[in-house]
Specification:
By secondary structure, this protein is an alpha+beta fold. Helices cover 68% and strands 10% of the residues. Strands 1-2-3-7-6 form a 5-stranded mixed beta sheet, covered by helices on one side. Residues 331-435 form the Sensor histidine kinase NatK-like C-terminal domain.
């Protein structure tokens, strides 16, 4: 009897430790921690101890489930920067999934072992071990699956209310199963089949629920990306349009100033002091002129602005582009393509210590066989990988960083174009192909 009690406690500790460890890994993979890793580990260990204590004083699954959800919410709220609504949702979802797997495991064990007396599940250590061996591996796989999919949890209130309905239904189902089907009583073959069917249905229900949530999260992220891209393009477009208006005024002023200077020269004649003063004024006016001529006014402004940034940060930039054949490209897309492309190149160069390695950007654009080809390459030191067609860098905010590239691709696709990215050890290249009308 003593050996059975010891085995029961050990089995309880192992199962509970697995549940809380997976929960800790799961939330750590999808949320930003605000406390130390040590505090998180202490919180998980404390929850394991409390859960083991609760399991040994109460076999009521509903009480246990409520306690787990509450403790999960507390751990989540204390250790992570996550809205309370999302803390509740994730804790509720995880523990419903964990208990659902236990139910599925129980149904399988009942069916395989042809159990007639359900009370043995509360006393037989081997049946409980079988349940743990069947259910816990699936739970352990949950964390790496979520991390691999990189599910970004961001739930709107409307989505939360809709997703809560199937979760509440799962909780009600758990209450029904453990309160009626699996209570201490003798069952027949029909009950066994019913138990297995319901348990399996719970398993697939939880898997389907996870799939639905993952899909909603993905669609929400795509929607957010689209909104950010749209806002960024509009902001860039407005900025460069205002710059264009200013440049038009400067051009008119430049023309007027030249006329005024000619008049002053005619009035003063060959006065050396006046001529020297006029030469100084001319030089200052020339310095204000845009020396880049790509054939597109908006593009000239963008290139001049980025060139000034490069000059201030010891970045060598070479620009060779004739954009005169691309007047069919909307000015908003011109802003999106070139400003984002050069911003990324400048940012990569800024990470280079210019004393050890050269900072360099080369931008070229030309027509090749009815295609306008843009080639931008820059030196770099950071590692860049491609996972599932998405670029992953060493930046902390990879979501915001990726918006620039998504914005470029979105604009290029408006003209049936294509974006190709090549990353070597020291050079990053972006090639853009746009069919000419």
């Amino acid at each position: 009897m003593l050996e059975n009690n010891i085995f029961w406690i050990v089995r309880c500790i192992i199962a509970t430790a697995i549940e809380w460890t997976v929960f800790g890994f799961l939330i750590d993979g999808i949320s930003e921690r605000k406390r130390s890793k040590t505090l998180l580990n202490i919180s998980v260990l404390f929850s394991v101890c409390i859960s083991v204590f609760i399991k040994n004083i109460s076999r009521d699954i509903n009480i246990n489930l409520a306690a787990y959800i509450l403790m999960g919410l507390i751990i989540y709220s204390i250790n992570y920067r996550t809205p309370k609504l999302e803390c509740i949702f994730i804790s509720l979802l995880y523990w419903v999934m964990a208990v659902g797997l236990d139910i599925a495991g129980t149904g399988i064990v009942v069916f395989i072992n042809d159990i007639r007396d359900m009370s043995v599940l509360n006393t037989d250590i081997f049946y409980n071990l079988e349940i743990m061996v069947i259910s816990k591996p699936f739970l352990i796989l949950l964390s790496p699956i979520v991390k691999t999919l990189k599910i970004d949890i961001s739930i709107r209130k409307k989505d939360f209310l809709l997703l809560s309905i199937p979760i509440v239904a799962n909780v009600a189902g758990i209450t029904f199963i453990f309160g009626y089907i699996l209570k201490d009583r003798n069952i027949n073959s029909l009950d066994q089949i019913f138990t297995l069917t319901i348990s399996t249905a719970f398993l697939f229900s939880n898997v389907a629920l996870m799939g639905i949530i993952a899909r909603i999260m993905k669609e929400e992220k795509i929607r957010s990306e689209y909104e950010i891209i749209k806002e960024k393009i509009n902001a860039q477009h407005k900025y460069y349009l205002s710059m264009k208006e200013s440049q038009d005024k400067i051009k008119r002023l430049y023309h007027d100033m030249n006329n005024h200077i000619m008049c002053i020269q005619n009035i003063y004649g060959e006065n050396e002091q006046a001529n020297r003063y006029i030469r100084d004024i001319k030089k200052k006016i020339e310095d204000c002129r845009y020396t880049i001529d790509s054939g597109n006014m908006i593009l000239d402004i963008i290139l001049k602005e980025k060139k000034d940034i490069c000059d201030k940060n010891n970045i060598d930039i070479i620009i060779d582009i004739n954009f005169s054949n691309c007047d069919f490209i909307d000015s908003a897309d011109v802003c999106s393509i070139f400003s984002n492309m050069l911003d990324n190149a400048i940012e990569a160069c800024m990470k280079i210590d210019y004393k050890d390695k050269k900072r360099k950007i080369v931008l070229r654009g030309t027509t090749v066989k009815k295609m306008f080809v843009i080639r931008c390459e820059n030196t770099k030191v950071n590692n860049i990988k491609s996972i599932g067609g998405r670029l992953v860098t060493d930046k902390k905010d990879s979501f915001v960083h990726g918006i620039g590239i998504h914005s470029i691709k979105s604009s290029v696709e408006n003209y049936d174009g294509n974006v190709e990215i090549i990353s070597d050890e020291d050079i990053f290249r972006m090639l853009i192909y746009i069919p000419l009308c």
